[in-house]
Amino acid sequence: MGMMRRIDVGLTSVADHPTLASQGKASTLADLAGHLPVVELDTTFYALPTADAVRRWQQAVPASFQFIVKATQFMTRHKEAPDHEPVAEFTAWRRALAPLIEADQLAAALFQLPPYFGVTAENVRYLHLIRRLLPGVPVALEFRNDGWYSPDYRGSTLALMRELTFSHVVVDEPQTASGSVPLVAEVTDPALAIMRLHGRNTAGWLERDPQWRSCRTNYRYSDAELQALGQVATTLDARRVIVIFNNNGGHDAAANALAFIAQLGLQFDDLGPSQLSLF
What we know:
With 279 residues, the chain is an alpha/beta fold. The protein contains 10 helices and 8 strands. The protein is globular.
């Protein structure tokens, strides 16, 4: 008999789900909170929010609603931190998000590491530094370099994440010769596992067009694919599993998320008032 598992489902980016929008085409946090208990915010990758902005997020959602918040591009080493000193960046991130941390609304700080963040002694030291600089904060790691999962390193990668209490992000994405990681259904923090579903648009994943972001994630999962992913979610041995749909290049994520919820028969209490159910 496994542990009692809670499965929550959410979307990335707030404004980009027209089917959930109650007014106009842009969806709001309140719209999302009418259907889902969690959201992933990626704007923080580019710039930290003001304290006022964070309070506005909180006012738009029920107290039980949760946020996965991306680490900044300096924290993930997409860019070198000013003065090569990441400590200030971590301090600023933690200070900006203090209202969420204090209200227990921060599900995780998401570190989506760049494809060139490979298995090196320096990068292993950096993972230790992340934990030292964010003590007590739930941290989730998504690797984008498949070296971490190679037969030589996979065991030690997962052991390191357990040691540092990092949640492992289980990804579903196109499998290409380079620039992809496999779906590794492993839990490294018994409190939380995260699945991020990027779709399976192989041609879009390899696209280098200026619009590559929307190409990469332009995919609609079939019912059979959602069912198989649901089976993965229900076998992850964590008290809480958060499934984030990031396959939104063609605005398919919201419909897929709602279908996934219906397939698994999930019920979320304490949702915000749903504007769509009034008529």
